[in-house]
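Internal ticket #5521
Category: modeling
Description: The requester needs a full-assembly model to guide mutagenesis choices. All entity lines are attached below as received. Residue total reported by intake: 1118.
Assigned to: D.W.
Attached entities:
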Amino acid sequence: MSAPRGTETVTVAEYLGRRLLQAGVEHLFGVPGDFNLTLLDGLARVEGLTWVRSPNELGAGYAADAYARRRGLAALVTTYGVGELSCFNAVAGSAAEDVPVLHVAGSPATTAVARGALLHHTLADGVFDRFSQAYAQVTVVQETLTAERAAEQVDAAVLAATVHRRPAYLSVPADLAELPVDARRLATPLAPPAAPEAAAAFAADLAALLADATSPVLVVGHLVDRFGLAGEVRAAAEAAGVPFVTQLSAKGCLDEDHPLSGGTYAGTMVDTRAAALVEAADVVVHLGAVLTDVLSGFFTHRPADARTVRLDATTAAVGDGAAHALGLPAAVGVLAAQLRAGAGRWAPAPVRPARPAPAPVEHGVGPLTQQALWAQVQEWLPAGTAVLADTGTSFWGAAGLRLPADTVFVGQPVWNSIGYALPAVLGQGLADPGRRPVLFIGDGAAQMTVQDLGSIAAAGVRPVVVLLDNRGYTIERALQSPTAGYNDVTPWDWPALAAALVGPALVAHAARTAAELAQALKAAAEDVDAVVLVVAELDPFDAPPLLRALAERNSAAQA
Amino acid sequence: MSAPRGTETVTVAEYLGRRLLQAGVEHLFGVPGDFNLTLLDGLARVEGLTWVRSPNELGAGYAADAYARRRGLAALVTTYGVGELSCFNAVAGSAAEDVPVLHVAGSPATTAVARGALLHHTLADGVFDRFSQAYAQVTVVQETLTAERAAEQVDAAVLAATVHRRPAYLSVPADLAELPVDARRLATPLAPPAAPEAAAAFAADLAALLADATSPVLVVGHLVDRFGLAGEVRAAAEAAGVPFVTQLSAKGCLDEDHPLSGGTYAGTMVDTRAAALVEAADVVVHLGAVLTDVLSGFFTHRPADARTVRLDATTAAVGDGAAHALGLPAAVGVLAAQLRAGAGRWAPAPVRPARPAPAPVEHGVGPLTQQALWAQVQEWLPAGTAVLADTGTSFWGAAGLRLPADTVFVGQPVWNSIGYALPAVLGQGLADPGRRPVLFIGDGAAQMTVQDLGSIAAAGVRPVVVLLDNRGYTIERALQSPTAGYNDVTPWDWPALAAALVGPALVAHAARTAAELAQALKAAAEDVDAVVLVVAELDPFDAPPLLRALAERNSAAQA
């Protein structure tokens, strides 16, 4: 037992709940099941934590992911086997996208495990670690609580998730949820140990590299957003006068109209100015940058070399030198100090072209096109929203927007799981309630996770949902076999469906023409107390320009 | 390369398709994604295979599971990462329930894997075997195709699934889907090798045991149904005059009114006559029986002893003797011969009580109760249907039915994943089109997988769906914390929702009273061309008697 007699104790459930609160978590996502009921009962007694209903675990997992992006941690509570495995894709996505979700799975009692009982929700073979073993492939740590070390194990899981910005897996046996543990540990907030020696060593390497540099550039990746470091990075760039480019996965993290912004860096695919800036730099600092096929313009980025500085979640390295064990916040601190110290020495940032005069926006009565849709959205999008863009035409349309200042952008360009962004509205909306979510999602994607419209409405979140209805998977039509039947989906009556899930809070519009879309968007902005659905009817073979570019690069890469 | 020059070749996709056809598979379940498009294009050219649209992979996986139960194999085709991990729970369920689903996941090209490319749908770490490693926890074999051995690997996966009646995992790299392989292998149907020595050794062990036996009993488990051996087992029991009892997981597999039927065996929980018969027997033959908590009445079954014969998918054993490597079909053959040889020596089967006079059925106008619902269903249920019962009050209500002859029963009493049975209607309906599906499902369960109502209708399946609407998870209310808020679900307008998904083929009824239910069921039986939804409104705390018994046993087991 963790708690010696006479000490102040709390139950494991309360201990976990209080650690979550300390980390900024106020909502619990998940689905109940018989192996987590005692845990849920215990968590329900922790003041400040609210249970959020989700119709299934995949949706809960996606919602938790979006919540964690804003809050720095989220908790996803499921039951053994049937529950925890239903959100495997969501948790793997959190791993791919560097999102700190603590997945808490209720599990069979230690007594049943000890006697190898053949329980339901197992493979009826007396083996109990199959699912934690499976989760070892996609989580940074797996802890199955024991009576001896429960509190330490909770701490290890929470700390690992926040330090790595990766999902962690915590299995809570049903008979340990009420185990008393020493409450005194809670007085010490969880934090990674300071690493002054690593910081000094990284600083020395960096100073040597910067000594003769004149034109450094920062490549801002999504880890900057995950660690909440955007303000610090912006301040450092401004103080030093160093330009930055932004990966698509970090869109919205820094103001796109900032004078030091060199644009979107995806190799040569999206923005040739950004590519030229990086190629010409004499030091390239990767700030939590991830260079996958999609994010690197199919590997047309400047490869890492001796003039590259790489800052990841837990390491910092210069060129081919040793990786120092330094968390991103500390490494950014070292970097900022040295850039500031060199202020005046750096070449002036290239002049950022003024925001182009808006293209003429189509408001006519012919069939709606992707081009007209995104031009109208560009014109309409209010500042201060959260834009959520699902994978497919939605992401590649939204990626081409020049976002207003103070816009949060949520997408999944590494993992690319369709259906993610709809439940993500729930997590984003609860994490950041001052900001109205604006969701762009295709019909094929929305069919994956549509039931969460009901949870979103029930939780009081009031998004604008722009449903790009092109009757199937247009991203796949763009990539291969455009007329294959497998790319078509079963047609649904979307307004009726949404009304059945949402109830009277729903306002639905059909937009078959640019004129109808303009009217619908205008009404949506005014109906702030409604869940607004705009069904935009689009041609199955129409796609935004960036998606066409992606498809061309993809087929060249396959050839 | 598998195919030497000059030999007849087919592509890997066609080879796989033809092996599936040979095994009785005519439908493919799944969702397209960029890593499986070449495979899907190749499968589309195989005459006799039809692609079935599913809105998401979890539904496709459940549908495949139900299809495999009837056909002896099903194919589930997904894409790498985002797709294959979305149905992890469904495939794990197939493992728990002994269902042969071949999970075919399209994966990155071997060339990209060889150079460790950082691709989308990965964790961006150049590691490509994470998901097959995760699947190693729940599938009987994992094959990632290679250019050298592709055809052999396809055969190994198909054979493993059918021999073990367990899911198998087959990863098809995108650049191998069109690889030519030797077609001549297709002339030899896949079959496990005969095992005459194991059969002889098992026969000898069995003969020794039966030599002094007078009262053997057969415990029929679900593997009898999975291997399609119900007819053979019934014939053997009849020829020998040996009684049988049936596990809940094998409900519907043998006629419940058969004179040799000793009833339902779940330890002492469901049917004390069946328990007494097993206790009194001098030989107990477990025919693919699985004795989990739920199926054994919380371990109140007669434990295995020296007088127990155990036949599993791939082994047969007598008492504590060695397990012989013998598949269930061959082992049942050995058993049948010896039981027949002893005909006349066995004690007469206890007289099966006549079907009890039907209890008075409530048709009044007071609020509908679980008792009235199940009594009406008992009276109404036509012969020749497929009854699908989701986990929860639906399963425990349906488990108490005495089924008409020629009724297929589909449930998940080992894995118990709520939401399973709705997409299962799609698989059952396509596998066995002469039989109308009758689905019983709670509202909490239906919220998990509701979108498949659209696929069911689009595929031409015309079920009766009885939705037990008790506004939450009543099985959990029965187990613990009945009034906890986490057991409530967001209310939906079910008839409107179903209409939006199904279209004009939907006919919906609300049944708030027994009288309304009677009318709705009558109309449902007549509307054979409609998808009929009956929303039965029930009290959140009302439960069928078997569920109450389960809850009592469960809490005793926890104490």
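Resolution: model delivered.
Comment from assignee: Chain A touches chain B through 89 residues (CB under 8 Å).
Ticket closed.
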